[in-house]
Write a structure and sequence with these properties.
Blueprint: E1 2-6, H1 11-22, E2 26-31, E3 39-41, E4 59-62, H2 74-97, E5 104-108, H3 138-155, E6 163-169, E7 171-173, H4 180-189, E8 202-203, E9 205-207, H5 208-220, E10 226-230, E11 236-237, H6 238-249, H7 259-268, H8 274-277, H9 285-289, H10 299-311
Parallel strand pairs: 1-2, 1-4, 2-3, 4-5, 5-6, 6-10, 7-9
Antiparallel strand pairs: 8-11
Helix pairs in contact: 2-3, 4-6, 6-10
């Protein structure tokens, strides 16, 4: 297959590029600062010579957008919105102009689109879209709006010959340095991997191999379109999530943190507490209904596998996003 990955230089793009290239597929990455032979320059906003790469491609996997690993200032939130919506819009324009449009367009979205809740899991059919919850910071609603506008930009694209799938992805766990698992493991190893603000908030996640397998599955399933949750079927409360991670590494205790302590830590890491405090209880209803089999459906086994890779020195330095 020929795959084009706009914004493919971040963690998820690196995982997919590595896996599909190793499997013998042709992968072209669109980036603001190309550094390799298979990378083409684009700005994520306007059509250019890069659009020719989409002509005749089997699939486009658009991952472009400003990283969420930042302080959620008004300026950064606006950039998150603009980078996602504009890139989705221009990818749609390139597909519409292609003489041989791709068969499928997989558009990254996020599990953050669902409501902050504890009572029941969110699948694609019955899940509650967030934004109207009470007792949450106002900017959490803006994060939901970003996700909605992101998906809308894809849905409104005039690409009748290309199937469209919105990937509502949970946190992707891989041994890559600089990725979310690397950060969480470092906290656990330092003895800081305890419950945050009580730890009742749910963590949704997906192992990197299941991410790759699910993307390949969705490329091959012509009967699946629209939103699809990319998450393991067993989300769990943050306190249990970190307990299992500590157990996998062999750390006996993890200091708890209050919400204000988490805020200080997020400030020091130039990140935001929404990533820690929002309850993301997301399950992959459509993937399971379609017969997809997860290699790592439960977090204890996934954590143990990732720890084995890290201990074996297989943690790979993830290329930080050089572009949208």
């Amino acid at each position: 297959m020929k795959l084009v990955i706009p914004g493919g230089t971040g963690q998820v793009g690196t995982i997919l590029d590595r896996a599909f290239t190793a499997a013998g597929h042709e992968v072209v990455v669109l980036t603001r600062r190309p550094a390799r032979e298979r990378e083409l320059a684009w700005d994520g906003r306007t059509l250019g010579p890069w659009a020719a790469a989409l002509d005749g491609a089997d699939a486009v996997i658009n991952l472009a957008g400003r990283s969420v690993s930042c302080r959620y200032t008004p300026a950064n939130l606006r950039e998150m919105m603009d980078s996602r919506v504009e890139s989705a819009r221009v990818v749609g324009e390139a597909i519409a102009a292609a003489a041989r449009p791709p068969r499928v367009w997989l558009q990254m979205s996020t599990a953050t689109i669902y409501a902050h809740r504890f009572d029941a899991p969110n699948d694609e059919a019955t899940g509650i879209i967030g934004g109207d919850e009470t007792g949450i910071p106002r900017y959490w609603s803006y994060s939901v709006r970003i996700a909605e506008e992101w998906e809308l930009a894809q849905a409104q694209a005039a690409t009748p010959d290309t199937r469209k799938v919105a990937l509502r992805a949970a946190m992707v766990m891989s041994p890559d340095r600089g990725g979310v698992f690397d950060v969480l493991l470092r906290m656990a190893r330092l003895g800081l991997g305890g419950p945050v603000a009580g730890g009742a908030q749910y963590v949704s996640w997906i192992h990197e191999r299941d991410l790759v397998a699910a993307v390949e599955f969705l490329i091959g399933r012509d009967d699946l379109d629209g939103p699809v949750n990319l998450a393991a079927p067993a989300p769990l409360p943050q306190r249990a999530f970190m307990r299992e991670l500590r157990a996998a590494w062999g750390v006996p205790v993890g200091l708890p943190a209050t919400a204000w302590m988490a805020e200080i830590g997020a400030l020091a890491m130039r990140s935001d507490t929404e990533l820690l405090l929002k309850s993301r209880r997301v399950v992959p209803g459509r993937l399971l209904d379609a017969g997809f089999a997860f290699e790592h459906p439960q977090w204890p086994g996934a954590a143990a596998d990732l720890v084995r890779q890290v201990r074996a020195g297989q943690g790979r330095r993830s290329r930080q996003a050089r572009s949208h």
